[in-house]
């Protein structure tokens, strides 16, 4: 039976692409050297798939930054402000992703948002009146020739036009319907080129079909594919979906002239019901996503075999085994993990292991290999997750009162304004300051045993002292301690909580060259000692200004970890919330009066279908956040932060978090969230970000001043905070310090020209 995958991790076995790309940005290597590294990575990844017996290997899934951006550039969907920079093709590409700044020019990056329900970020294409869609890029076709030259059985991959239009921004009064015909022509030209290259399969990724699809969107889908499929030629076309089911368009999809249809049977389990109720055309091949591409646990073969047999009964046996989504969302190989306990490691399957699982399942399903099945069954009988009965008992005893903070927010707001006496438009940052080379070296020395814990802490204390003084000197109103002790906002907390285990090399791409190492939830979760209190108390001792205690929220810790599959998400998140509640109360006891509980990933695991938002997610995610802070005093101010997701459609749920202040990413998305806040009558005090920290570009005072004036025009001035979009960890100190000075100076200018009312109107 044929085996394939939707996509493969692209940062390299040891993050070679990250380091090479960052060296290129710093002018340490040439473009040719970067391209050579990229080619080596691609060849190694293709060879790994060949060695694992994968029959159709995706080509085109590699990217220097993002596949959506790749597709936009392939089709000439590049705003003129980047064309006008007159850069090389590669530098123009990076300018779209990161922004551009020189002595004479400064251009913002394109917006960046979360890719469906994952922690991966995509670059948002822009369509405007000058957009001239046509096939001009060669990256896909060049990589195909590269793959064919070493004998790769190529399956070309591209983001589909329906998903492209659903995820893009439309400016100058344009709308998606204006570009349908041009996209049909461009994708038809792609097929023509693939026919010339004698490529057997084209995989067109359309995960947006797993959203709710109304009649207008069905017409959009019809117009696009009725035209594109007419140009199919000898190249077979696979419509690939993932992250959910396609209940709204199943019959529309199977009626079209696709040669293959890819369905997710992990997150999209309802696809199995669709098959049973509607059947599957005999002239098509089903690419069945039965190996989980988003989690790291071994596949339970006995369960999967039953599922595959049921699926096969509706497809006349025309079946290809597939992953549920791209393996981009898991680390490279579990073989690299030398320090994990053996009883944990034997249950892990990263990308390389998932390739082997497809081969195993092929043997079990079609060759009836009982040895493989028996070994897997025995493995699942050995799982022993640690249990904390006291935590489970505490969860069972929770009542509605445990999730409710008193008094109501409006009363707390007045109490807090009297407590802190902050100026109008108070300034703060989101939390982290740049993790400079010496900070990373200090952490590495502690890990290797080259310095003592006291020496490590002394170094960090000097960093805290320096950054507190910097913030005071430039006039920031609410300070942070810089988070120099933290490797990652989730990994750091997971390391301090019982119930987590950690990898050495389990890197997963988040965006561009940014990787994270998600913790693994292995047992029941609890706190055994204070986590952040010591550093927060030390920072507060250095200043009379308030210093925020900084925590990562329960939903984000869960969403940015690899969760267990035998425990409900609600149970795991509630366990984390109870542990963090203890930390919040300890901070409060130690005179930390402002506490930020970050939830950048709140929207991340939101079901793709709106009808399931509350019943399957928000009904337990929002209460979990409330549980963390429900017992603090009215005078303690609770902040939270969210970034790089479409938050406009869950504003009411965000308001229901009952935080006192919420900061949002906003500047990169051109403040589109502000009108949504106004329309929703948002009650919480709010800090829309005025500085895009994911770009090396430094905003001028004038630019920031103009953004603040927009805020003042649209929102009650007594509700506005001024801050960057996100933490500054990934930026340089030079960029960060200059940007923060400009933010503070711009805020002071606006304060001088507005009437400074009492903080509560």
Task: Please provide a written account of the structure.
There is one protein chain. The chain folds into three domains: 1-55 and 258-276 and 285-384, TIM Barrel; 75-240, TIM Barrel (Alpha-Beta Barrel); 413-753, TIM Barrel, CATH 3.20.20.210. The strands form seven sheets. Strands 1-7-9-10-11-12-13 form a seven-stranded parallel β-sheet. The chain has a five-stranded parallel β-sheet with strand order 18-19-20-21-22. A two-stranded antiparallel sheet has the order 2-3. Helix 26 (672-679) links the parallel strand 21 (661-664) and strand 22 (685-688). The chain contains 28 helices and 22 strands. The longest helix has 22 residues, at 453-474. Helix 12 (301-312) crosses helix 14. The protein is globular. The chain is α/β, with parallel strands linked by helices and 761 residues long. Helices cover 42% and strands 12% of the residues.
Keywords:
single chain; 7-stranded parallel sheet; 3 domains; alpha/beta; 5-stranded parallel sheet; TIM Barrel; 761 residues; 12% strand
Describe the secondary-structure layout.
Elements: H1 16-25, H2 31-51, E1 57-59, H3 67-74, H4 80-83, H5 89-98, E2 100-101, E3 106-107, E4 112-114, E5 121-123, E6 126-127, H6 139-148, E7 154-159, H7 161-167, E8 169-170, H8 180-196, E9 201-205, H9 215-228, E10 236-240, H10 250-255, E11 260-264, H11 270-278, E12 285-291, H12 301-312, E13 319-323, H13 342-345, H14 351-367, H15 370-380, H16 389-396, H17 409-420, H18 437-447, H19 453-474, H20 491-496, E14 497-501, E15 508-511, E16 514-516, E17 520-527, H21 533-541, E18 548-552, H22 554-559, H23 569-589, E19 594-598, H24 614-629, E20 637-642, H25 651-655, E21 661-664, H26 672-679, E22 685-688, H27 701-714, H28 733-753
Parallel strand pairs: 1-7, 6-8, 7-9, 9-10, 10-11, 11-12, 12-13, 18-19, 19-20, 20-21, 21-22
Antiparallel strand pairs: 2-3, 4-5, 14-17, 15-16
